[in-house]
Specification:
This protein is α/β, with parallel strands linked by helices. It is about 40% helix and about 15% strand. The protein contains eleven helices and seven strands. α5 links the parallel β4 and β5.
């Protein structure tokens, strides 16, 4: 369930962190689930001695940083783990490693908030790099470690077929591929594969040989229908709520038919396939974890909706009016409370994908 929250990577200007002040930091809790796994991967697989042999500065990129504070916590951990590995590998060294963290997000991201929020006491220097991570961002062979958390599930764009009334993938009456015809699902899957190929090719140019990349994102168990996930219920209810409002004349059906969420949740098999096809990285770890394992008790529906709204509000406002969005989220919350049993029965275990790659 808590895999719904996200550090936004498409379009970042939609993110509204003010909505999250009164609710649990689910993203950080989910990241803590894989924290020790990332530490283990760095300890076992990252050759820090070799990476630091030509320079005492380690360059780290955080892709899809949003405005913090989760990005700062993640970078603090990564730097600490790399320092520990260097001490293990080079116990007699008199060299002190330096770290430069390059925080990346779309140009529309609030970098002012990001950098005014940076911890004063931090073990790294910091810089911002605006731009889409589906393209090149850094000089060739300049990055030693890449971290990307809850960003890659956002597609670079909505698949064009979804808006073509003459195409079998026209997504009429829906805003996602949840419970949609196979043509719609395939359009989403195809766009994800294209985006991942562009992403991996760009990173292959930027990451040094032996460098590491960690990816955390929502995931789907192999062979499981997406409709079994709690997220699917949320998106279905969003669509039905908009259609209810269309029937009442509050929005038009055309407005609903022309809106689709650019979100895709891959299975481990899909992710392995795109990485292997790309050929520039070896897969050191690829597994599903339980993002809700640190959250006790039943689903907090109100907090869940707040997280979703924080992630998507700006995108909705660009397509619908502000008043409509307020009404939609109010109705959505009430509808979810009416179907609490369905929400609770949604599949929650092993819905967070952790991928660790090494540049060949």
């Amino acid at each position: 369930m808590q895999s719904i929250h996200s550090k936004i990577s498409f379009p970042f200007s939609t993110f509204n962190p003010r909505l999250l002040k009164s609710v649990p930091n689910w993203q950080r809790l989910a990241a803590n689930v894989v924290k020790e796994r990332i530490k283990g991967a760095i300890t076992m697989k990252l050759d820090v001695e070799k990476l630091s042999s030509t320079s005492n500065t380690i360059y780290i990129a955080d892709l899809g940083c949003a405005v913090g504070p989760n990005a700062f916590d993640a970078m603090q951990d990564v730097v600490h783990f790399i320092q520990q590995k260097y001490t293990l590998q080079c116990p007699q060294s008199n060299t002190t490693l330096q770290f430069l963290v390059l925080f990346n997000d779309q140009p529309s991201n609030d970098f002012n908030t990001l950098f005014t929020s940076l911890p004063r006491e931090r073990p790294y220097y910091a810089a911002g790099v605006p731009g889409s991570f589906h393209r090149r961002l850094f000089p060739e062979s300049s990055i030693h470690f890449v971290h990307c958390s809850y960003a890659l599930h956002w597609l670079s764009k909505v698949p064009e077929e979804l808006l073509d009334k003459n195409c079998g993938a026209w997504n009429k009456g829906r805003i996602h591929y949840t419970n949609a015809p196979n043509e719609v699902v395939q359009a989403y899957a195809s766009q994800f594969a294209k985006d991942m190929e562009e992403f991996l090719c760009a990173r292959a140019m930027e990451i040094v040989t032996g460098g590491m990349m960690t990816i955390i994102m929502p995931g789907l168990p192999n062979e499981m229908p997406y409709s079994q996930l709690a997220a699917s219920l949320m998106y279905d209810f969003m669509a039905s709520t908009f259609m209810d409002m269309a029937n009442e004349g509050l929005v038009s059906e055309d407005e609903v038919d022309s809106f689709n969420l650019p979100i895709y949740t891959p299975s481990p098999a899909e992710m392995a396939s795109v990485v292997e096809k790309n050929g520039h990285f070896s897969i050191e770890m690829l597994e599903l974890t339980n993002p809700a394992s640190l959250v006790d008790g039943p689903v907090d529906i109100k907090a869940w909706v707040i997280h979703v709204r924080a992630a998507m509000e700006g995108m909705f406002i660009k397509h619908f009016s502000t008043d409509i969005i307020d009404e939609m989220f109010d109705r959505l919350t009430k509808k979810l409370f009416m179907f609490t049993d369905q929400v609770e029965s949604g599949y929650k275990d092993r819905t967070q994908l952790l991928v660790v790659l090494i540049r060949k």
